[in-house]
C-alpha cells in the first residue's frame, strides 16, 4: 500500500437558532424571524434529504457481499475524506509561494509529514480495501490517484506506482463510476446510509452524483430502459 501514501500530500456547522414569534398585528405575521438574522423569511432552508429505498438482497451470497463491502467502505472512507481535505489545504498553502522551487520544497515537506503520520495505518489495508480507497479518492477529489501522484510528484513516478499497484490488483487510474459499475453504486448507497445514520461525517463528492438515476439503473432496470 506504499503507493497510496503519496496521495495524502495531495458544511460549515449548522447554527440552530430559536424561532421567535412575530407580533400578529403587523404585516410580518406570515414570516419567520430567526434569532441573529435581521431579515424576515417565509421559510427556513433545510439540507436535502434523500429517501433511500430498501435494497433487495435476495440470496445469502448477495447479503454477504454487501456487508463485506460495507465494512471495507466504512473503514477506508475517512482516508479518502482526509485526502480531499489535505489537497485543499496544500493548494491554499502553495498559493502563498510565487517560485516553483519553494512550492516543490513545501509540498515535499508536507508529504513527509503525512507519510510519517499515516503510513502505518495505510499499510494495514488489504488489496480490496486499497482499490476501494482509490475509487473514493476520485469521488472526493475529482481526480484519480494516478493524476494526484503525477501532479504532486512527477509523471514517471506516477507511471511506476501504477504498474506496481497493478501487481496487487490495485489500479490507480480507476475512477468512481456508480452509474456504470454496480459495486460503485453499492458503495454510494453504503455512504449515503452511513451519512444519514451518523456513522460517517458527510463530505460532498467532487462531482454531481444523482442517486435517483442510480436506483433507476440498478434497482429498476425495466424503468430505465423505457
TrEMBL record:
Record's keyword terms, sorted: Coiled coil
Coiled-coil positions: 80-107
One Pfam family from the record: DUF4294
UniProt xrefs under InterPro entries: DUF4294
Protein name per Swiss-Prot or TrEMBL: DUF4294 domain-containing protein
Source organism (scientific name): Winogradskyella jejuensis
Lineage: Bacteria, Pseudomonadati, Bacteroidota, Flavobacteriia, Flavobacteriales
Amino acid at each position: 500500500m506504499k503507493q497510496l501514501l503519496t496521495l495524502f500530500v495531495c458544511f460549515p456547522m449548522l447554527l440552530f437558532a430559536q424561532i421567535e414569534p412575530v407580533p400578529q398585528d403587523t404585516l410580518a405575521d406570515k414570516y419567520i424571524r430567526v434569532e441573529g438574522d435581521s431579515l424576515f423569511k417565509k421559510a427556513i432552508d433545510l439540507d436535502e434529504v434523500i429517501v433511500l429505498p430498501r435494497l433487495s438482497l435476495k440470496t445469502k451470497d448477495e447479503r454477504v457481499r454487501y456487508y463485506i463491502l460495507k465494512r471495507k467502505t466504512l473503514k477506508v472512507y475517512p482516508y479518502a475524506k482526509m485526502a480531499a481535505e489535505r489537497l485543499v489545504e496544500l493548494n491554499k498553502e502553495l498559493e502563498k509561494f510565487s517560485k516553483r522551487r519553494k512550492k516543490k520544497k513545501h509540498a515535499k515537506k508536507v508529504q513527509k509529514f503525512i507519510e510519517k503520520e499515516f503510513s502505518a495505518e495505510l499499510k494495514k489495508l488489504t488489496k480490496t480495501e486499497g482499490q476501494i480507497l482509490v475509487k473514493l479518492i476520485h469521488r472526493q477529489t475529482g481526480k484519480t490517484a494516478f493524476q494526484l501522484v503525477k501532479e504532486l510528484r512527477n509523471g514517471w513516478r506516477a507511471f511506476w506506482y501504477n504498474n506496481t499497484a497493478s501487481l496487487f490488483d490495485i489500479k490507480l487510474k480507476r475512477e468512481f463510476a456508480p452509474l456504470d459499475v454496480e459495486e460503485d453504486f453499492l458503495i454510494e448507497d453504503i455512504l449515503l446510509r452511513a451519512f444519514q445514520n451518523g456513522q460517517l461525517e458527510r463530505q460532498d463528492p467532487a462531482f454531481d452524483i444523482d442517486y435517483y438515476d442510480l436506483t433507476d439503473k440498478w434497482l429498476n432496470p425495466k424503468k430505465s430502459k423505457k
